[in-house]
Design brief:
Length: 363
Amino acid sequence: MTTDTTGTAARDGEPRRGGPADSPFVRACRREPGPHTPVWFMRQAGRSLPEYREIRANVPMLESCRRPDLVTEITLQPVRRHGVDAAILFSDIVVPVAAAGIDLDIVPGTGPVVAEPVRTAADVERINPIGRDDVSYVDEAVRLLVAELGDTPLIGFAGAPFTLASYLVEGGPSRTHAKTKALMYGDTELWHALCARLAEVTLAFLRVQVDAGVSAVQLFDSWAGALSEADYRRYVLPHSAHVLAGLADAGVPRIHFGVGTAELLGAMGEAGADVVGVDWRTPLDVATRRIGPDRAVQGNLDPAVLLAPWPVVEAAVHRILDEGRAAPGHVFNLGHGVLPETDPEVLTRVVALVHELSARPAA
Ligand code: CP3
């Protein structure tokens, strides 16, 4: 037996066992069999947890994202409490955009609000390239977390160009994305210039996280479901594909997720994902037919079901695990983020239930 620098025991001549790269989560992303179906929750670190609300009481959101001590503690909270199979870095999709020089804030109960919306060529020029020094707090937090987490993988993440562009062009959250689409259809050249800049910022942000040791990345294109497949392919896919292709040699699985994307699932896979996130509207067996055999799926419990009585939750977990068997790999998750009013005890029970129902005897 020898011990490598990560403290992982390995027999000479045999592939290395143990460590986050061999975890149930990373194995499922790679479509390899594992001991059970892995589970984590989008927005698992956040307002559903009293310990989160306490630590955030007097610290604004963006400031908390820039303090490695707080990022580390908040990221670890749901891992300790629920026993999830992966941690997700506590940050926000607008953190790299702020680092790129855009004046913005995250307003409680609203979301990101941009001081001067980005709508002209001169505005696009204000988005600067970023490097590690611009987000050194993320580099530091990931390194601290990787040391703390041991065999539990850490997921890094970023926002995809379309979803980031929507916040920048609208100036804040939008139901219709009307100004964003007006720019996309009305000045296609400027649209592509904006998305190309954002793709570089996103890629650089993810690179920092990969270099610091995350075991997987998730590209959130939360609002891509606002587009038809034809428009998605024309205006959005090339930019997301640039980000995902830029990580092809990073050696970590790439998850690609959006909401309301039933019609886009195939295209989002083609953009270069190893795992496609599916919301609750599309059963995982149907989603798998649309995505194809070369990618795993992640999802897809409706977050609102967690507010229902336990037998309802239990039945939904059974159904999703059954439907997920059609996929070449399944990471259990919600169809979107945990709602703040969710009882954390229910999340803990879901983790235990997924593990119990999916347990496979060791090969
Ligand atoms: O546990 C985790 O998932 C990690 C943390 C995380 C946050 N934001 C923290 C956060 C992640 C992965 C995100 C991503 C994010 N941010 C997305 C993509 C995922 C999705 O939900 O679709 C988007 C669209 C944003 C933009 C954003 N930031 C929104 C819509 C909000 C919520 C606004 C609100 O208060 O209702 C935020 C703020 C935010 N980001 C909070 C957290 C924990 C709430 C801040 C608080 O505690 O007040």
